[in-house]
Amino acid sequence: MRRSLRDAVVLVTGPARGIGERVARLAAARGARLALVGLEAARLAALAAELGDRHSWYRCDVTDQAELDAAVAGTIDRYGRIDVVVANAGIANNGTVAVNPADALARTVEVNLIGVMRTVSATLPALRESRGYALLVSSAAAFTVLPGMAAYCASKAGVEQFGNALRLEVAHHGVAVGTAHPIWVDTDLVRDQQHDLRTFRAVVRRLPYPLNTTITVEKCALSIVDGIERRARRVYAPRSLAAVQALRTIYTGPVAGAVLARGARTRVPELEAEVRALGRSFGSRSAADR
Description:
about 290 residues, Rossmann fold, two-stranded parallel sheet, 9 strands, Oxidoreductase, NAD(P)-bd_dom_sf
């Protein structure tokens, strides 16, 4: 059963850009009151001002529990409750384990997975009070593999499983939990990798449908906001990813692994050379998240 977002209090992490920003705009258009939580203060302030005085923003690193707790307290002080949480903040390091410092790999996991855990921990008392809904943004990477994305795939698979267990833990409190699984979305994060790494573009083109497709941020955000209103257990963007998840043992099995390994023999050294030449572990527009 759909639940209108009119006057619902929705806390969104990572709303300064990309999916989070567009989700915030769509939710506001449907009448939600927003708490925008993220690192880029100037962008958050501008978005909140544009959307109107029903909305607020909080500068916060999702890997810092004290900052998250303060953002949640500020939201409750202003609105009295939290009805929906969208744990969206995410980053992706460039390239393989061999060419990334351990700190870059760990930062990807810290933001994408530990950040989700901390966000849920900070907001769960409020969600229990409101019998609310949490949507944890995972990825198609949760049920596929790709060389050069070890930390990202691990973090997004972790988000999926964290959500699956959390759902069982909180159902008797009336709290619903969903996970969202977008494919490549035309955001700054994906554009940075496509611009910086020619080999990344080539690898993605060789993936089977629908894993080789890119969707607009508008289409992805619309799927997510519709999923929030349905308190959906799974949100796929596009919907064809449901079949990929159902057949995940094929996509991660020995046959698929052998096919990927053949291409990896040449593509991985090329990718590593590009990352070394680039001289940084993250996209140019991920600087604030490092």
